[in-house]
Predict the structure of Biopolymer transport protein ExbD/TolR.
Amino acid sequence: MSTDLDDIIEEEEDDFVLPRKNRDDDEMDITPMIDITFLLLIFFVVCSTMDPTKIGTIPEAENGLAIAAKNSAVIFINPGSGDTVILNKMDGSEFSRDEDAQASEIIEYITSELERSLGASKQQVMLFGDANVKVGQVTRIQKIIGDAFEDIDSTYIAVKEN
């Protein structure tokens, strides 16, 4: 009788055994690694700052292009105190030190300079910057020019080396 009982117990145990999934030893689950990669990517994107005023210095020019100043509106950009700049016209006169006033003066100056060179085939602006001028300041002046004058073909930037 004990054999019959043992057979019944073995049959019941066989019913409750879950089938084992055969896995190849070569397979590896890379889902956790992908999760960590995306978490790191999100962390660095959130922690980084995208401030164009914190960009480094203007790189040195390797090659140049000859541009005639007589057909261009020329603005000289010199470093001021702190992060400010001093803007000068071609005749040496200075623009206002206030950034809001500078914007309107730049627009007036370029308008008058381009009206004098109506016979020229190109309309262009030349910005002569000192090597110590911050890139953000040059970008600010370019934005003023670009927003006010959609018909200007090119804005050229020259960097004076020390």
User: Anything to note?
Assistant: Strands lie at 72-79, 85-88, 124-130, 154-160. The chain has four helices and four strands.
